Amino acid sequence: MAALLLLLFSAGVLLSSIEAQEAYSKLPDKYRKGVDLALQQLNSHSGVQHHYLFFKSLLKSDIEPGFDVSYIYHNFYLKATKCEKGTVDARKCKFRDDRPLIDCAICYKTFAGKIEKEPKPYVHCLHKPALTEDMKTTRVDHCNTMSYQSGDTTILASKGSK
């Protein structure tokens, strides 16, 4: 009986990590790059002790003004796992249910599929309970402003005079 319970528990652990990997792998590449950037910044903080995985997207949008340029906005959750920070093979990492989700919003410009250094990518991640409506509004406002900072007009958007 104990062996059966252990087998069922192990299957549950494997399923939760498979679901996390599947959710991440289903993201288009342009959004995965942003999730990777957010995870990289999160892992650079000394106070973070657990390995985090992408959990789910809340909002995705992109503006493609042309010439292989895109402005990406992605709001998503990261969830702590029982693995230690720095775990390389996360396939066996089970999600923790005793830690709050981390709500991340990220926006960045890509050219030819690569994240540009200018304007500097904006990454804002915070434990969900601490996130206020004002913070959410500030995130969106910042990203909306960033999308149009370049001031460049595309040929299709310009109006000629006759």
TrEMBL record:
Keywords assigned: Chemotaxis, Differentiation, Disulfide bond, Inflammatory response, Secreted, Signal
Gene Ontology molecular-function annotations: signaling receptor binding
Gene Ontology CC: one annotated term: extracellular region
GO annotation terms (biological process): cell differentiation; chemotaxis; inflammatory response; regulation of lipid catabolic process
Highest taxon above the source species: Eukaryota
Signal peptide interval: 1-20
Transmembrane segments: none
Compartment annotation: Secreted
Stored PANTHER family: RETINOIC ACID RECEPTOR RESPONDER PROTEIN 2 (PTHR15106:SF2)
Name of the protein described by the UniProt record: Retinoic acid receptor responder protein 2
Organism: Salmo salar
Upper taxonomic lineage: Eukaryota, Metazoa, Chordata, Craniata, Vertebrata
